[in-house]
User: What shape does this take?
Amino acid sequence: MEELSAPEPEPEPEPEPEDAGDAVIATRGLTKRYRGGQLAVDGLDLAVPSGSVFGFLGPNGSGKTTTIRMLMGLIEPTSGTARVLGRPMPGAARAVLPHVGALIEGPALYGFLSGRDNLLRYDAADPTADPRTRRTRVAAALDRVGLTAAAGKKAKAYSLGMKQRLGLAAALLQPRRLLVLDEPTNGLDPQGMREIRSLVRELASDGTTIFLSSHLLDEIEQVCTHAAVMAQGRLITQGPVAELAAGARGRLVVTTPDAGDAARVLKEQGVGDVVVTEDRVTAEPPDGELAEVNAALVAAGVRVRGFGVERASLEDAFVALTGEGFDVAG
Ligand SMILES: Nc1ncnc2c1ncn2[C@@H]1O[C@H](COP(=O)(O)OP(=O)(O)OP(=O)(O)O)[C@@H](O)[C@H]1O
Assistant: This one.
């Protein structure tokens, strides 16, 4: 009998996670267990929309660096998949990485070379970079990060913030579709933090997708359009920052020199989770009429200087989601 050579059925394309249509980074069940047995990342489904400034938030040890190393193809996942710019990692690393600028664990710089010479070296190490346009590229990158005036100084004389900016300049020598920044403000003083944050906003305004990790909640709120929250290797939530914060209830805040009395009255009124810090008493917003609570305070002789419900922050959302405080110090 003649055998029919029916064409092999096409393998089903792997289903993409929800709304990963224009995702610059998409992972499915991404998991990393280190040899010692430590489960560092556990079943991560991440979707980073194109054009977002995406904050990857979590306390120290929550698995952020491990995830970034998998995304960049530096280490293999134990299971699950990661796609960056639509291509699988680490398999397509050679095709993907030229479009990705990365600043991971501080830039590797030569202290005895000037900032400019460091960048010239970086550029020379890139086989795709045309040597004839090298100086122009380096000058543009220095200008981009505000280091033109300090370009001739030795890198060892740079402040930590300037070194970070030089690292960013190196990542910006070529046009990038994605920038991956691992804790870019770690160790910087407040001025250095402000500089890096405004630089990140500026870069984002050109349409580059930025994925940045941080253990600082307020940093994510100030800079990011979207965020994913990690705790102990697992994804707690992800989405637009405004929506994440809105998901949590705000706090009732009473400002008064009679904080002790105010706390007592609030508890008598059945208000939950009353916390006193100096002249501020915060609590869960009551279910009933706010005005009644205020009236009870005033009737008890509490000098109420301020009374209202503050908008929920990302921190409130984190606490609500994990049932834990966000340990900023790690
Ligand atoms: N090479 C390794 N071998 C074994 N365990 C590791 C290794 N690297 C990290 N870990 C562990 O995996 C967990 C996640 O670490 P990871 O560095 O990814 O977290 P993180 O959120 O980036 O924290 P940090 O901000 O401190 O780097 C931690 O418990 C850490 O001790």
Residues 12-20 have pLDDT under 50 and may be disordered. Residues 34, 36, 38, 40, 58, 60-66, 215 surround adenosine-5'-triphosphate (CB under 6 Å).
